[in-house]
Design brief:
The chain is an alpha/beta fold. The protein has helices at about 15-20, 60-65, 80-85, 90-105, 140-155, 180-190, 205-220, 220-225, 240-250, 275-280, 290-300, and strands at about 1-5, 25-30, 50-55, 70-75, 110-115, 130, 160-165, 165-170, 190-195, 200-205, 230, 235-240, 255-260, 270. The protein has a seven-stranded parallel sheet, sandwiched between helices. A three-stranded mixed sheet has the order 8-10-12. Strand 1 (about 1-5), helix 1 (about 15-20) and strand 2 (about 25-30) form a beta-alpha-beta unit.
Length: about 300
């Protein structure tokens, strides 16, 4: 297929782009390279890879790119509560308005597969799993814009969405701010972490399983289209304290303490059912333990010491 990926040089895109190229697809990536990343350099030798530096919000740029594509994967976004809170205008225009424009420009025949966040579930009912039928109650600007973008995608023909659990794992465009990645990094280099509201639960999924979900969606598009799908690990609906206990098994010197006062700005708290995508034949390959071992290797290489003398 001819595939257009916006934001294809980011955390997910840096895994998904080479995965799709390896399967023989023609892939065009549009990215503004906001983080000065070089995550797609290995793809440049592939004749089926094209790259455009630009802004996904610019209609005159997007229109001809969209016209050439069989499948559009909008990854470009400001991702996470903290960065979205710093610039609400950029968040709304990138996460929501750009996707709505893309849906307007694409023909009915073109496919759209979009990742969103399962943080749209907000605060779930205690002991009750969130399914794709659970009402969406996003708590943050990030969650709200992603929910509205998903509405735009699923309101058109030939589309599906993946509601991703909190992603973890190593990627060429690495992120240290994601919860598992952050805690493992701190466990290795700080040996300690202070936890706010440690009972809050959420679901987790490895970055390579997210890429696999996309290739699964492409292969089974006709039977899966028109619906959202939760994507996560069934055995990883964990609180922050439970997550730290799993990390401590691998790094016994790791100390974690729950703060008696203070709040986490990210208020989501829920457990998730991934039964719908499992029913299509998809099964994750990366456990939380396997991902922690991978991250320990990665953080042996990666030290965020740019402003430090040691």
């Amino acid at each position: 297929m001819k595939i257009l990926i916006t934001g294809g040089a980011g955390y997910l895109g840096s895994i998904l782009t080479p995965t799709l190229l390896a399967q023989g697809h023609e892939v065009t990536v549009l990215d503004n390279f906001y983080f000065n990343q070089n995550s797609l350099m290995d793809c440049c030798g592939n004749e089926k890879f094209s790259v455009v530096r630009g802004d996904c919000r610019e209609e005159s740029l997007m229109k001809p790119l969209i016209a050439k594509a069989d499948l559009i994967i909008p990854l470009a976004a400001l991702v996470g509560v903290p960065i979205c809170n710093t610039d609400s205008l950029a968040t709304t225009s990138t996460n929501q308005a750009a996707v709505e424009m893309l849906c307007r420009l694409a023909s009915k025949q073109q496919w759209v597969i979009m990742p969103v966040t399962n943080s749209g579930y907000g605060v779930g009912e205690k002991g009750k799993f969130c399914t794709e039928e659970t009402p969406l109650r996003p708590l943050s600007t990030y969650g709200v814009t992603k929910v509205k973008a998903e509405e735009a995608v699923l309101s058109r023909e030939n589309s599906l969405s993946f509601r991703l659990a909190t992603v973890f794992g190593c990627a060429p465009r690495m992120r240290l701010d994601l919860l598992v990645n952050d805690f493992v990094y701190r466990a290795m280099h700080d040996r300690a972490v202070l936890i706010f509201e440690g009972h809050f639960k959420r679901n987790y999924v490895h970055i390579r399983d997210v890429a696999r979900a996309f290739t699964h969606g492409i292969a089974n598009f006709e039977t899966m289209k028109g619906k959202p799908y939760n994507v996560g690990l069934d055995d990883a609906n964990l609180s922050k304290l439970e997550l730290c206990a799993v990390i401590q098994k691998h790094l016994p010197k790791f100390v974690y303490v729950e703060a008696p006062i203070g709040e986490d700005p990210d208020k989501r708290d829920y457990i998730v059912s991934n039964a719908r995508i499992a029913g299509t034949g998809f099964k994750p390959e990366w456990s939380l333990d396997r991902g922690i071992v991978e991250l320990m290797k990665g953080f042996t290489i990666l030290r965020n010491t740019i402003y430090s003398n040691v």
